[in-house]
Amino acid sequence: MAWWKILLISLLVVVLGGLGVAWYVMNYVELDIYVPLYVDNCASCHGKQMQGTDRGIALLGVPLSRGDNIDQLQDSIRQAHFDLGNPAFAGVLSDVEVKGLAIYIGERRMGQRFTDFRFDRDINIPSELQVSEEHNFTISTFAEGLDPMVFSIEPLPDGSMLLTEKERGLSIVSADGVQSELIAGTPETGSSIDIMGIQYGSGWLLDVATHPQYEDNGWIYLHYTHICGDDCGASMLSATMNRLDRGRIRDGQWVDVQTIWQAPFEYYSPTPDTGAGGRIAFDDTGHVYISVGIKSADGTSDTTPQDLDLPYGKILRLRDDGTIPLDNPYFVTAKDGSTRASAVTPAIWSYGHRSPQGLEWHPERGTVWDSEMGPRGGDELNELLPGRNYGWPYVSGGLEYSGYVVERHKPKAIEFDETVSEYSLVDITPSPAISSFAFYTGDQFPNWQNNVLIGSLKGSSLFRMAFDGRRLIHQETLIKDLARIRDVEVGYDGIVYLLLENEAGSSIVKLTPG
After folding, report:
1. pLDDT classification of 85: cutoffs 50, 70, 90
2. Alpha-carbon gap, residue 429 to 380, rounded angstroms
3. DSSP label of 98
4. Residue range 383-397, pLDDT digits in tens
């Protein structure tokens, strides 16, 4: 990106709040709105750093006898517990303030600060054996020195793996951890600027995935934000939109390229690609699913995920050649009663999504699942059923960054149809900023079979979730405070691989049975 564009964007962000970025950034300011609320109402008893005083218990580093999930913390704040030094705040603080305080305390108990994105923290791989409930394992480096802006890895049968770096392109990391030259001919990429620890840019390479019959057909699918160019007019940030291509790699070249899905240019936007989603999943009947986030044409995220005429905040389902399945739930829902010719609505599988970070096919249940980042709280894991509404921006377990309830969007949004709404399988509040996930299906960790292994960004941790059908029955933190985990994959060898992003250089690590 030219220096003058970066300068103008920075000025616009600071002075004018253009492109919707300034509003987003202002809500991440270190002056966390819940710090003064805590200091004014809680610090005199529990201490400014939650260390406890002679008037109240410590809130960090010790179990809380009345529980420490968000509901329990809210109950403790509302009710008087004079034996613990807690006055009653019901009627003193609003419900939103009580929930915000509970989230703030919960974040601190998790070792998180609201504005610490951990992008600049050193990655220190533990040398000792990691002990977990079902399997012990070691963590070792597979590849290092990668670009800071990584997004996806995809294991290949020979032990190597594909790698996407958002602004650099597509490459192959060999089985012994050596990164190749960039594959020539992949889509044009843009560039980013860092604003308070968050990267803003356009034209990013996102997910990469091999076709289920890759060993026979060689197809590789690439999800990226396509740069529109002159067709969308001039702007400081290039107008982009999610696009899915497939191609093959031959002699270091990206060849045989076919576009599987592309939105009409009217939906392209200069909104930064931070919320673009961008994952890929295949089922076992010839379909490919892609996630499209809340990158919207007008720079807002209020109503677009609920509008079936728009692509934002949707999971799309296509045949693997790009044709639209006739049994998609909205194939024939045009307002005039005719079959839609648009590339948007007939492809929709589910809607009401905010920031889908992971997308995977459950091999046992035969359904597609997604992991979704909420605002302040409200991270979700969902089983995606056809035609169902997953709520955003009407329903969320979290609060907006500015402290408002999510429901404030209701008056200006289209009518919310609760008859097709679907609740998340898991609501994670406070939010560790969950990222990608994988269903474990290898033989190296047999007691993890079909468990969800899910990474986190701000949380810098790897979690394991076990389900009985749709019901979460157990959760364990496998790794804590490692690094920002951008992608989780299971190799052909049954080893678990993690893609770690870091400002000083990203890396890939692997989990091997101890």
Report:
1. low
2. 9
3. H
4. 999 999 999 888 889
CB proximity list for 270: less than 8 A, separation 6 or greater:
19, 202, 235, 236, 237, 238, 239, 240
Tell me if 60 sits within 8 A of 46, measured CB to CB: no
In the chain, count of helices (H) and strands (E)? 7, 25
How far is residue 312's CA from residue 353's CA, in Å, rounded to a whole number? 8
Q: How far is residue 185's CA from residue 488's CA, in Å, rounded to a whole number?
A: 27
Domains of the chain: 34-109 (1.10.760.10), 148-513 (2.120.10.30)
Length of the chain as a residue count: 514
| Nearest C-alpha neighbor of 208 from the set 288, 315, 280, 263 | 280
Which residue, chain included where needed, has tokens 């986030």?
A: 293
Look up residue 73 and give its amino acid. L
Tokens for 223, please give them.
């999800």
Residue 56 phi/psi, 5° resolution?
A: -160, 160
For 132-147, the pLDDT digits (tens) are: 999 999 999 999 999 9
Inter-residue long-range contacts of 321-328, CB under 8 Å, 24+ positions, other chains counted = 321/258, 321/260, 322/244, 322/258, 322/259, 322/260, 322/261, 325/287, 328/386
Query: How confident is the model at residue 83, as a pLDDT?
Result: 64
Instruction: Give the whole-angstrom CA distance, residue 234 versus residue 122.
Output: 39
List the one residue out of 357, 386, 351, 362 whose CA is nearest residue 374. 357
Contact 437, 426 (CB under 8 A): no
Reading across the β-sheet that carries 355-362, which strands appear in turn?
355-362, 367-373, 379-384, 426-428
Q: HSE-up of 167 (CA within 13 Å, CB side)?
A: 15
The encoded tokens of residue 385 equal: 């059923």
What is the greatest pairwise CA distance in the chain? Answer: 73
Average pLDDT value for residue range 367-382: 96
> What is the C-alpha end-to-end distance of the chain, expressed in Å?
46
- Residue 430 preceded by cis peptide, ω within 30: yes
